[in-house]
Write a structure and sequence with these properties.
The complex is a heterodimer.
Chain A (H helix, E strand, L loop, with lengths): L3 H4 E8 L4 E8 L2 H7 L7 H8 L7 E5 L4 E7 L29
Chain B lengths: L6 E5 L10 H9 L4 E7 L6 H5 L6 H18 L3 E8 L3 H18 L5 E5 L4 H9 L3 E3 L8 H6 E6 L4 H8 L4 E4 L4 H11 L4 H11 L15 E5 L3 E6 L8 H6 L10 E4 L2 E4 L4 E5 L3 E5 L2 E4 L3 E20 L2 H4 L2 H19 L2 H4 L3 E7 L18 E9 L2 H17 L12 E2 L5 E10 L3 E4 L8 E5 L5 E3 L1
Parallel strand pairs in B: 1-2, 2-3, 3-7, 4-7
Antiparallel strand pairs in B: 1-8, 4-21, 5-20, 6-15, 8-9, 9-13, 10-11, 11-14, 12-13, 15-17, 15-18, 15-19, 15-20, 16-17, 21-22
Helix pairs in contact in B: 1-3, 3-4, 7-8, 8-9, 12-14
Classes of the chains: A alpha+beta, B alpha+beta.
Chain lengths: 103, 463
């Protein structure tokens, strides 16, 4: 089973305003994009498990022209708050890298 | 008014103070730029800049960039538009930028007509709007509570294009705008000239971060937008750089939860039908964006200042600690809480919080690593949070001996961990948070904005 990092040429995360995080998955070519765009592994439940967010608020948006799947979700803790660990959410993508995708 | 010909917007940088390049300005002016427009900040770096009314970029850098833009204005007569002045766009941030501008106009011996747009909001007025049902929450926040409004140091409303258009209509040479959407700052001039709203807003979004939409974002600072009645073109101001359909369309993803629909004051930009085509070597032509007008709303941003924090940092290479970092973390944290409670009377201490961030181990993720060997060393950051700076400092002082010497193996000689500086504790000030994620409905796009003009003696006078 391939890992997400093996089917994407770039994966990044960033704040999208103070209350949201957005992750961009740049799939490596159209074939991989088509194959994994709708895969079950990248579920709202996964984002609930990894980031503690309400699954109902996870947005998954395919961008066909760029072979990108964008996934946005609310921050679990306030930006810059008492227990902030990543102000710009720039490192939040890392725990997605080794997610295994069913072939 | 229908657009006559084409409108060229010179976007000199992604944020005023980030480093405008004079050669790029010369290139843009030579291409016939009609206006220079840039934002000067955003919310990305957190609520501190709005709460404190401070800029993230330093004064010298902002003065340097603004000086280059003002000299371009003096040379050509084209307007200069700045939005979200002073990083956060609150009244203090606008006034900080105004003072730099005044200093520059005196040094340059010029007297442009300057409009100041203030979009800071009165708390009582926001609460009244809320009672009238005019305030609506955006996910993930719920209905607005008065306490959230009261907790804020400053509240701003994000301006759309209308206040900028009104200032241009009134003859402004230079506009220093408070908080506005990045897009609105760039879209305002073309819209004033009669360009299509879809193309203008889309162009504004693509160019909001300057050269970020180019193939090599590090080569150059800005871009030139050319808007016409059918769409727009974008090209780098650095002649060695290029835009490609991919580099341009990719920017719709950036710091944005939805790449297809952008909610802006007074409407939604829909780019689902947009097409991107290479134009010559360096430029990209974009067409097909639509603007759907909606009932007018302004998004609110409010920044609250909270408790105070004090930091301490040690480096640890001790093999006993690295042998079981998680256990060390838990034991040390428990010992620090106990020590603090023993050292400071409860009635004095109040509610407090201590956290340890194990840099090199799990400081960023917070997760416990699985099947990952410990590194050669870790940095342990202690963050003490309390209601005053003095208390946070006192907690750090109470924790200091344990943080310095707490052993992993109790019957061994006490270790000494690696402090980097003396004194060991660093008072870092308050915690700042955004408290609002709401929009306020207003029939009049200008009703929540105050415009002032600088008179010949550089005093701000109300419109």
């Amino acid at each position: 089973m391939p890992k997400l990092r093996e089917v994407c040429h770039h994966i990044r995360s960033k704040v999208a305003g103070p209350f949201w995080v957005t992750v961009d998955l740049f799939f490596d070519g159209e074939e991989k994009y088509r194959k994994y765009r709708d895969c079950e592994e990248l579920s709202a439940e996964l984002f609930h498990r990894l980031y503690g967010v309400d699954p109902a608020l996870v947005k998954r948006i395919p961008v066909d022209s760029l072979h990108v799947v964008k996934i946005s979700f609310p921050r679990a803790t306030p930006q810059g708050g008492m227990v902030e660990r990543d102000m710009h959410s720039g490192q939040q993508y890392v725990r997605l890298l080794d997610i295994e995708l069913n072939n | 008014m229908a657009l006559q010909g084409r409108v060229k917007v010179l976007v000199p940088c992604g944020s005023l103070g980030s480093g405008v390049r004079e050669s790029e300005i010369e290139y843009g002016l030579a291409q016939g730029a009609n206006v220079i427009a840039t934002d000067a900040g955003s919310t990305d770096s957190g609520a501190a800049y709005l709460a404190l009314g401070k800029s993230k970029n330093n004064r010298g850098a902002v003065k340097r960039d603004l000086g280059i833009l003002l000299r371009a204005h003096a040379k050509t007569g084209i307007p200069v538009i700045v939005g979200t002045a002073g990083q956060a766009g609150g009244d203090l941030n606008v006034d900080w930028t105004r003072d730099i501008l005044v200093e520059l106009t005196r040094e340059l011996g010029i007297s442009p007509k300057v409009a100041l747009l203030y979009s800071e909001q009165d708390k009582a007025r926001i609460k009244a709007f809320n009672r009238q049902g005019k305030v609506r929450p955006l996910p993930p926040l719920g209905p607005l509570e008065d306490s959230a409004v009261d907790s804020c140091e400053h509240i701003v409303g994000l301006m759309g294009v209308e206040p900028f258009v009104a200032a241009l209509e009134a003859g402004a040479d230079v506009i220093i705008g408070g908080r506005a959407t990045d897009t609105a700052v760039l879209a305002s001039y073309p819209i004033w000239k009669g360009a299509p709203w879809g193309a203008s807003w889309h162009a504004g979004k693509i160019a909001e971060c300057g050269a970020q939409c180019c193939l090599n974002p590090a080569d150059g600072s800005g871009v030139l937008l050319t808007i016409d009645e059918h769409g727009f073109e974008v090209e780098p101001l650095s002649t060695s750089n290029r835009c490609t359909p991919h580099s341009v369309s990719k920017h719709m993803l950036y710091e944005n939860s939805d790449p297809h629909y952008l909610h802006e004051p007074g409407g939604i930009l829909d780019v689902t039908g947009a097409s991107y085509a290479q134009l010559g070597e360096r430029a990209v032509r974009v067409q097909g964006a639509k603007w759907a007008a909606q009932p007018y709303t302004m998004k609110l941003e409010g920044a609250a200042a909270g408790n105070y924090q004090t930091l301490m940092l040690v480096g640890i290479q001790d093999p006993d600690v690295l042998n079981d970092v998680n256990t060390f973390h838990d034991r040390l944290l428990a010992a620090l809480y106990e020590r603090t409670r023993k050292s400071i009377p409860a009635e004095e201490l109040g509610e407090f919080h201590i956290s340890l961030r194990m840099y090199g181990w799990n400081a960023v993720s917070g997760d416990v690593p699985v099947n990952v060997p410990p590194p050669r060393e870790i940095g342990v950051l202690l963050v003490a949070t309390a209601s005053t700076q003095e208390l946070a400092n006192a907690i750090a002082h109470a924790c200091n001996p344990y943080f310095f010497h707490y052993p992993m193996v109790m019957n061994k000689e006490l270790p000494s961990y690696g402090f980097a500086f003396s004194p060991a504790d660093v008072p870092r000030g308050q915690v700042f948070e955004f408290k609002l994620n709401h929009v306020v409905a207003t029939d009049d796009p200008l009703s929540l904005v105050r415009t002032a003009w600088l008179d010949s003696d550089d005093n701000a006078i109300a419109a």
